[in-house]
Specification:
The complex is a heterodimer of chains A (182) and B (391). By secondary structure, chain A is an all-alpha fold. Chain A has 7 helices and no strands.
Chain lengths: 182, 391
Amino acid sequence: MTELLTWVFAALFVLVIIAWYLSYTAARLDRLHVRLGGTLAALDARLVRRAEAAVELAHSGLLDGATSLLLASAAGESLEAPAEHGEAREQAESDLTEALDLTLTPAVVQSLRETPQGQDLVERVTSACTRVQLARRFHNDAVTDVRRVRRKWTIRMFHLAGHTPMPGTVEFDDEMPAPLAS
Amino acid sequence: MRIGIACPYSFDVPGGVQFHVRDLAEHFMGDGHDVSVLAPADSETELPSYVTSAGRATAVRYNGSVARLNFGPVTAAKVGRWLEQGDFDVLHLHEPMTPSVSVLALMAAEGPIVATFHTSMLRSRTMQTAYPLLRPSLEKIAGRIAVSEDARRTVTTHVGGDAVVIPNGVYVDRFADAPRRAEWLGRPSAPTIAFLGRMGEPRKGLPVLAAALPEVLRDVPGLRVLVAGPGDPDEVTEGWPPEVTAACDFLGSVSDADKASLLASVDVYVAPNTGGESFGIILIEAMSAGACVLASDLPAFSRVLDGGGAGAMFANEKPDELARTLVALLRDPRHRLDLATAGQERARLFDWSVVADKIMAVYETVIEGRMASQWEPERRWGRFLPGRAGR
């Protein structure tokens, strides 16, 4: 009789440990998914702010007409791109990066810096670009963490991730225009 | 903004990470932020008002050098209390893989967390055994900063993911304005060179310098070597040739003001470090003070010196090459001046005003990410996770 009890308790103990481990792993994954949602939203916000800074620069009247048009249309594409983070969005952001790079040549940056308004705009674009880089890097870090944890066999076997799709890194060109980088 | 900064190394002894933490905290306070620093320190050590002591540190061998760290249940409780009282908007941990207050804070905290990796020399053995313990906690870090490309490589290979490189900062003006001290100034017949750092620690490179000195003294007999840093001269000089010992002045630990004056006064500052330097803030300080720098060609040093454009370099751990380069520099005041001028110019890139802005951008990005996902650990699965001390 006592032997049976011992076995029952031992089995219960093992079950409790397993249950604790599973819920702990689920909690860990949940925390990661929340972090992921946050970094993605932050990246979104940063991208919008960069596009707005670009629009403002285009409308400032400090650039020539053709360049303004080019920059404004690239920024418009970025602002209109669907909230979905798919290839279309990444393409739009890469295009905006390229447009900024073409617009802000060393000579243009120098002439912009001569007026207080231009100086202000240059600073805003610089800061927006830096923050896009940071947000994208932190988001991709979170993606890497999530993907690694989701490869664990416990998570796959017990479907701890539920129906949350496997996240992918966000890839687009976020290089800062060279004259701003110094 | 309320900023909490955790430093794993004791404030009793000077060190790169401690200075980084102190300068960063002071810069942010100057900008009107609320900053609290948690670090180990002895009760006798006088601390700035913004530093909270996590208790007495113990000297431990960790990752290849002796560090003064702080751990144990009492410390863990103190860390928890600090987090609770501070109620920080962002928590900035330095060296989150060193077994001290940073790790404890990482395990206990829940808010937006930024971590700075300083070291480039994590041993893979240490990593393999310690890693599984840390993994779930490291996942809480929302923004990773590395102080150098080498430190970043450590992050990418050992931790996974990536890190933003933001170099160490220096208050360039404090060094640039340092007065020269007559007794440290070199004369053409008796030039002076300086070594800074813990004497007893071989990777700071004093033995390399000592091995090079007999040859240098043959060519420049009047040379004086000013050695500043903690350590026992008698112990260190054991076995050195008598003429080398005679050429050295041991200044002991020097204050920050004296350090700046020393760097501004000497003809050449020598950094013969053999490894384990991920950044080399001391080189930037020397460059800011207008010293001509001669350093070993560690990758980190080479990057700071712009591949040799802002200071001379010699092959690491090669005393004869150090001797040759040093003698050539001592004989060519024109070249020294060129290097020093280029160095002072380059040092501006590492001024705190530039560096702290970048760190603030990281804070803001991380906080924004957290705001966008108001996660409540009390609900859902979160209650199964240990450590919810900080909100």
